[in-house]
């Protein structure tokens, strides 16, 4: 809680007391180093300024901005009553949006993308592309019933893991191909990023 409130010096002392009493430095060592790093960063702040993009931001989620051509693509929660909602959160499933970038570098004119890749049962996004925008790397939640199954206290739980799909533009449409390392029965794959030379695709997975 102290770290969450940017009280890093106090948090470090508490963590060090815990390590001293329990002898379990391994468990909190990374947390202590995180406090040290935060204190260094706060002592030498950069000149970056944070600005609320009020033209697109809402009380819901907006994140993972990616520039494609003259537009900005990002992932967001639709504020639409008629859309299917997540049973746990009560919000509409994530979709990919676009926004225009003004001369002063502000974002406005947000629109939900009308494309096949947004027409999925559950969450869609984030998105990344190659330089020309002809190849899209999109994270989406596996919609089927054959995903990962875990057992706990004689109960079975079905987890809809994340998967990556690669969309290639051909004749005005996108052809979708699953990422070769998808395995929704075992783990999630997503949040892709392409290297500047476009030879390496980075992604996260559990």
- Helix content class: 10-25%
Overall pLDDT: 87
Summarize the helix and strand pattern as letters.
HHEEEEEEEEEEEE
**What gyration radius follows from the Cα positions, in whole Å?**
21 Å
What sort of overall outline do the alpha carbons produce when their principal axes are compared?
globular
The secondary structure category is: alpha+beta
Q: Which consecutive residue ranges, at least 5 long each, have pLDDT under 50?
A: none
| Widest sheet: strand ordering | 1-2-3-4
Question: Largest sheet at a glance?
Answer: 4 strands, antiparallel
How many alpha or pi helices?
Answer: 2
Strand content range: 35-45%
Distance between the termini: 26 Å
Number of strands: 12
Q: Can you offer a commentary on this structure?
A:
- This protein has 206 residues and is of the alpha+beta class.
- The chain has 2 helices and 12 strands.
- The strands form 4 sheets. A 4-stranded antiparallel beta sheet has the order 1-2-3-4, with no helix packed on it. A 4-stranded antiparallel beta sheet has the order 5-6-9-10, with no helix packed on it. The chain has a two-stranded antiparallel sheet with strand order 7-8.
- Strand 3 and strand 4 form a beta hairpin.
- Helix 1 (8-22) packs antiparallel against helix 2 (25-43).
- The relative contact order is 0.09.
- The model has no long low-confidence stretch (mean pLDDT 87).
């Amino acid at each position: 809680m102290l770290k969450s409130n940017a009280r890093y010096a106090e948090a470090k002392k508490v963590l060090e007391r815990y390590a001293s009493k329990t002898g379990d430095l391994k468990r909190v060592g990374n947390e202590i180093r995180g406090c040290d790093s935060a204190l260094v960063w706060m002592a030498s702040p950069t000149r970056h300024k944070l600005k609320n993009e009020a033209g697109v931001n809402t009380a819901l989620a907006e994140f993972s901005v990616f520039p494609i051509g003259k537009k900005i693509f990002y992932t967001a929660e639709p504020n639409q009553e008629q859309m299917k909602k997540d049973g746990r959160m009560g919000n509409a499933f994530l979709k990919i949006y676009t926004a225009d970038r003004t001369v002063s570098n502000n974002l406005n004119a947000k629109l939900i993308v009308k494309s096949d890749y947004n027409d999925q049962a559950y969450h869609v996004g984030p998105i990344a592309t190659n330089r020309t925008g002809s190849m899209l790397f999109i994270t989406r939640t596996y919609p089927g019933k054959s995903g990962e199954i875990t057992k706990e206290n004689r109960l079975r739980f079905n987890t809809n893991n994340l998967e990556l799909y690669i969309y290639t533009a051909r004749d005005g449409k996108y052809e979708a191909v699953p990422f070769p390392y998808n395995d929704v029965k075992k783990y999630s794959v997503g949040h892709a990023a392409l290297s500047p030379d476009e030879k390496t695709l980075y992604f996260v997975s559990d």
